[in-house]
Amino acid sequence: NAGVMQNPRHLVRRRGQEARLRCSPMKGHSHVYWYRQLPEEGLKFMVYLQKENIIDESGMPKERFSAEFPKEGPSILRIQQVVRGDSAAYFCASSPRDRSYEQYFGPGTRLTVT
Amino acid sequence: AQTVTQSQPEMSVQEAETVTLSCTYDTSESDYYLFWYKQPPSRQMILVIRQEAYKQQNATENRFSVNFQKAAKSFSLKISDSQLGDAAMYFCAYRSGSGGSNYKLTFGKGTLLTVNP
User: Fold this and answer.
1) Which residues of A touch B37 (CB under 8 A)?
2) What confidence score (pLDDT) does residue B100 get?
3) Which residue of B has its CA nearest to A49?
4) Under an 8 A CB cutoff, do A42 and B107 touch?
5) B20: which residues sit within 8 A by CB, 6+ positions away?
6) B87: closest CA of chain A, how far (Å)
7) Confidence of residue A108 (pLDDT cuts 50, 70, 90)
8) Candidate from A40, A41, A48 with C-beta closest to B103
9) Cis omega (within 30 of 0) on the bond before A8?
10) For residues B97 and B32, what is the distance between their CA atoms, to the nearest angstrom?
11) pLDDT (tens digit per residue) in A57-81
């Protein structure tokens, strides 16, 4: 049973470009969560999605950030017009529908903005 | 809002010895979950152990055990017979057990554990 998959593992973008981070949940998991880890910090919740629905995006910056989890395909975290402060590790986790306390994390995408 | 505090930025232990990592949290809830996650240099987040607040018995997973003191809001992790592969950043995390936001994990800032051969 494959774990949570994220790609790319490393992403370098220049200021002003767009970053797209992908997350494929574990088989059978319908809930996806995105967290951000800034240097020297713990992970911070960004957004919680179910298929075709954003349930809670309270941790996501209002501007430039968006997330989706379509009916088919991976969940996408999109950052438009990236700035240096967006440099961080972005982790995706997934859980079964009825056990949200069991969040399994992917390996993360390290975004570097130059 | 809940907060999680890990007061030890770094810890070290000799191989085969025992080490305890500290975690305290602040909450007004009575129903919640606590977790320890391990993040090795690969940066993969790995769940080490989970504790349900309603359970009085401390969780144990092989060489890993917790000391859960609900009244003191303390949740320490004990690693016995430390191995080189235990070297990692360890994060304590909290999750509400009920209510509208019972899916968010709140993490501490982490403790970097070094294991010396």
Assistant:
1) 105
2) 67
3) B103
4) yes
5) B67, B76, B77, B78, B79
6) 17
7) very high
8) A48
9) yes
10) 4
11) 999 999 999 999 999 999 999 999 9
How confident is the model over A41-52, as a mean pLDDT?
92
CA distance B110 to B7: 9
| A88 vs B60: CA distance, rounded Å | 33
Q: Which two tokens stand for residue B2?
A: 């809940």
User: Per-block average pLDDT, block size 10, for chain B (117 residues)?
Assistant: 92 97 94 94 89 92 96 97 96 85 88 96
Q: In chain B, which residues have their Cβ closer than 8 Å to the Cβ of A110? A: 43
**Hey, CA dihedral for A113, B3, B8, B12, is it positive or negative?**
negative
| Owner of token pair 């859980």 | A95
Question: Which among B33, B46, B108 has the least Cβ separation from residue A101?
Answer: B33
